[in-house]
Amino acid sequence: MHTIEPPASSRPTSPDAQATGNTLRPNMVGVRDLVFFVLSAAAPLTVMAGFAALAFSLGGIVTPSGYLIAGAVFALFAVGFNAMSRHMRNSGAFYAYITQGLGPVAGSGAALVAYLSYALGQIGFATVAGVFASRTLHDLAGLTLSWQVCAVTLGLLVAALSYLKVDLGARVLAVLLTAEIGILFVLAIAVLLKGGHEGLTAQSFNPAHLMTPTIGSLFVITFVVYIGFEQTAIYSEEARDPRRTVPRATYLSVGVLAAVYTFISWIVLVAAGPHRLTSMLTEDPSNLVFDLNTEYVGSTMTTVMHVLIVTSFLAGVLALQNAGSRYLFSLGRDGILPVVFGRTNPRTQTPSVAGISHTVLVIGTMTGFGLTTLDPYTQITVWTSVPTLVGVLLLEIATCFAVIRYFRRIPSEENLWQRLVAPALAALLLTGVAVLVLTNMSILTGLGTAGNAIVLSPLLVGLLAGCGRALWLGAARSTPTGR
Fold first, then answer.
1. What is the pLDDT of residue 316?
2. Residues 389, 397: contact at Cβ < 8 Å?
C-alpha cells in the first residue's frame, strides 16, 4: 500500500527518531547563519555587477526605487509567511505551507515546482559561475580552462560542502558574503567622498519618475534579484528556536537586501552621473560597475572584484544546493518521492541520497548543455533562471492563499493583519508582478511565445506530475490491497 504523509509541523528529535536516518540535525543554525544562506543565494555583488546595467537601461534613474518597491512587496509577503512558519517546522517550506492550507494535491504539485525552480536556478548560477571563473583564471593566472570544466568543478565543490555539516557551509558563506558586500561599500565610500560625477542626487526617489512605460520591464529585474529570501524556512528543522529564528531571519534578510540593492544602485547612478549614464550604457554595459570601480577606487580593487564575482556565484550555488537537496529530502520523507530520498547521513544528519541525487541531476544537466553550441551566459543561464523567478512567484502567490485558508480553519494567536490583510495584499501585488514578468519575458529570454513556453515547460511538468502523484497515492491508500 502506498501512502502519502502530511508534512510534519514538528519533527521528533529523540535518539530513536534520529536513528531511523530520516531527521535533520536540530539546533545547528541561528539567525545569523540563516541570513548568510539567504544573502548568499541572492548574491549582492553579482546582482550589482552583473544586472545593474540592464536594470538602468530599462528603468533609468528610477532604478533604485525599483529595488526599494520590490523589497517592500516581499516584506509584506513575509508577514503571512512568517506567521505560517511559527506553526510548522518542515524543510519543504512552500510545499509544507501549501499542503496545510490548500491540501495535499496542491502541496505535492507545489513541491515539485519548487524543487525544479531551485534546481534550474542552480544550473544557471553554476553555468555563469563557470564562465566568470574561466575568464578570471585566464586573466590572472594565464590558465585556460573551459567554462564547462569550471562549472562542474564548482558544482562538485558545493556538493561536498552541502553534504558536510550545515554549519560548515554557513561559515564558508559568511566569509564570502562579507567580502563581496565589503567591496561594494568600499566603492560607495569612495563615490561619496568624491561627490560623484555630477553631485549627489535624490531624483531616483521622486514618485513622478515612476510613471515610465518601462517600469514593468524594470520590475522583472528588481524582483528576480530577491529570489532566495524565502529559503529561511527550509532550515526550520535545523534552526535553534525556529519559532523566533526563522521570522527574524526572514525580515532581516529582506531588509538587508532592500538596503544594499537600493543604496548601491543609487551609488552607481551617482558615480556615473545621470547624464553620463546613458553613454556608459551604450559603450559597454557589462563593464559598468567595473569601470566605475576602477575610476573611483583603482584597478587593483577591480581585480579583486573580478575574483569576488566568482566567489559570489559560488556562494549562491551552495545556497541553492542546500535548498534543492532539502526539498528532495522532504519529499522522500513524506512519501511523495521514494522513501530513500528521505535518508540522512548518520554522522552529519544532512540529506544523503537526496543531496547526491540532486548533484547528479544538476551536474548531468550542465554537462548536457555544455555539449551544445548554446551561449552559456545569454542562453543557458537566462533560460534556466527565468523559470526560477516565475516558479517562486507562483509559489509565493499560492502560499498567500494557503496562509489565509489555514488560519480560517485553525485557531491561532495571529492577528487580522498577519492572517488575512497582509497575505491578501501580498497575493494581489505578487500577481501583478507575475503578470508583468510573463508579459515581458522576451526581454530576458530573447524568445517568442513558443520558445518561452518551452522554457517554462518544466514547471508545468512538475506541477502535473506532483498533483498526479498525490492523486494516485490517495487512490492507492483508499483501495484495499487484497491478498
1. 78
2. no
Q: Which residues pair with 351 in a beta bridge?
A: 344
pLDDT of residue 335: 83
Cell of 479: 483501495
Q: What is the pLDDT of residue 246?
A: 82
**Mean predicted lDDT score pLDDT of the chain:** 83
3-state secondary structure of 344: strand
d(CA 95, CA 115) in angstroms, rounded, equals 9
Nearest to 8 by CA among 80, 118, 82, 93: 93
Determine the length of the chain.
Answer: 483
- CA dist 98 and 339 (Å) reads 21
**Whole-angstrom distance, CA of residue 1 vs CA of residue 391:** 32
Res 6: pLDDT: 46
CA distance 394 to 60: 28
How far is the C-alpha of 100 from the C-alpha of 412, rounded, in Å?
14
Taking a C-beta distance cutoff of 8 angstroms, is the pair 173, 320 a contact?
no
Q: What are phi and psi of 29, to 5 degrees?
A: -130, 150
pTM for the full predicted model: 0.84
The C-alpha cell of 478 is what? 483508499
